Amino acid sequence: MTAVPNPEPVPARADGESSGRYSGWRLLTEGLAGQRGWRRAWAKATPRPRYRVVIVGGGGHGLATAYYLASEYGIRDVAVLEKGPIGLGNVGRNTTIIRSNYFLPDNIRFYDYSLQLWEGLERRLNFNAMVSQRGTLNLFHTEAQRDLFTRRANLMRLLGVGAVRLSREAVKGMVPLVDLDNGRYPVLGGFLQPRGGTVRHDAVAWGYARAASQAGVDIIEHCEVTGMRRDARRVTGVDTTRGLIEADTICLAVAGHSSQLAAMAGLTLPIETHVLQAFVSEAIKPVLDVVVTYGAGHFYISQSDKGGLVFGGAIDGYNTYAQRGTLPVAEEVAMEAVTLMPGLARVKVLRQWGGVMDMSMDGSPIISKTPIDGLILNGGWCYGGFKAIPAGGMCTAHLIARDAAHPLAAHLDLGRFAAGRTLDERGAGPFPYAH
Amino acid sequence: MLRIRCPWCGERDETEFRYRGDASQSRPAADAGLEAFSAYVYERKNPRGWHLEWWLHVGGCRRLLKLVRHTLTHEIRWVGNAEDQASLPREPGR
Prior knowledge:
The complex is a heterodimer of chains A (about 425) and B (about 90). By secondary structure, chain A is of the alpha/beta class.
C-alpha cells in the first residue's frame, strides 16, 4: 500500500493566535495555573478579497483539503468558507464509523489509504480525535451472503487489507448481545476488519480546523456562497454574504448541496440529495466493543465512549433537503436493532437526527475537475463520507496543487459516468435511492 | 410520514409506495448521441424546492403515479397519472 508521507513541520500563525502544542505536560501545567493559558483552537478569519484557493464548505472534507493543501503541498493562500459554524453539517451528524471493507479494488485502495491516514492522524494533527480501531464486524445470515462476503474479504486480503472470518461461536464470544438463532435470520458467522472502528467525529472537524488555521488557512464562518463568478472558460470567484471573494481555484466540498453549488456555475451533476438518519440511545454500561453491521437488513451499531449506542440504517429513500428523518425508517431501524439484539428492546432512544447527502448515480464518490476550469468537485459521498475524510482531503488537495488526479483517486473522476466506467459497489444501477 | 393521495386508492401512507425518482427526465431521440443519453441516465437537477417525481403504488393499485412534492417541506402539491402533464409551481413554496 502507499506509504503515508511524513508530516512536515508547520509554522504557527504569525498573528499570535496559535493555540500552541497540546500535550500531557501542558495539561498538567495548565491545571496548576488555573487553565488560563488556553487559546482558541483556530482563528476566526475575516475574508480577504482574493485567495489562490477557495474551498466552499467547512466540513470534514473541506477542512481536510485545506489542511493538506497547506501542510503537504505548500499552498497556504487558502480560505474555507462555511455557511454556518464549522462542524455542524454531516461531519457532526454521522455514526463515526471508519473501515475499508469495500468490494471494488480501486475503492478498497482508496478507503484503506484513508484508514492509514486515520491511523497516524492524531499525532499529525496534535489533536485527540479518539481514533478507536475496535474492529468492524459484518454479520452474514445466508450461505449466498457468506460466499459474497468471502469474496469481498479475499479481494481485501489480495490488496493487503486484513479481513478475518468468524464462526458463529466466535461472533457470540465477541458480541454476546447478538441473537444467533433468530428464527428468520439466523447468524451464520461474520467478517471482521480488525483495523476498522470509530472516531470522535466532532474532534475531526476541530482537529483539522486547528491544524489548518495554524498552517495559515483562513477559516471563515457564517459566509454563505450565493453565486459563482465565471468567464467563458473558468471560475473567477464567489459571491458570498460577506462580499465577493476572488480565487484561482474554487473547490466545492459541500456534500448534500453539491448540486446547488454546481448549478450556480451552470453544471448539472449525477447526484440526488437524500436524508440519512442516525440515532443515539441513553448511556448504558459497556456492552458492545466492536462495530456490528446486520446483514439481513441495513443496520449498523456501535457504542460510544459515553455509553450511548450509536446506530443507523438506510436512507429514507426519496429526494429531500430536510435535515430530519421520517418515522417509517426510524421504525425499521428499531425493528432491526431488536431483531439482531433483543436485549436492546428496553433501551430508550435519546436522540435522532438526519443529515442530507449527495447520493451519486453509482454509489461512489467524486473527486474531480469539472468541465469548468478551476472548479474542483469533492462530493457524491453517499453515506460513506466520514471514513474518507483524510484520503478525500489529501486527494482533493493533490488535484488542486498538482492539477492532476492523485493515483489513488483517479477512478473517482466525473467523466466516468459518460464513459461507462461507473463504480457500482452494489450493482444497483443508476438509481441513487437504491445505493 | 408522507401521506400520498393516490387517484385510485385515496390517501395512503408512504410505506405503501416505492419511490422511482425524477419524473422530469425525458428519453432523448434514438440518434441524439452519447451526451444526450449520458445526461438522461445520470444527470439530475436535484432541486431544493418543487420536484416532479415517480412513485409506484406497489402496496395498492400498483399504478405508477406522478407527484409534485417539495424537497424541503415535503408538501405534496399534486398527484396524477403517469401520463398526466404537470408543471412545477413557480414560487419557492416555503
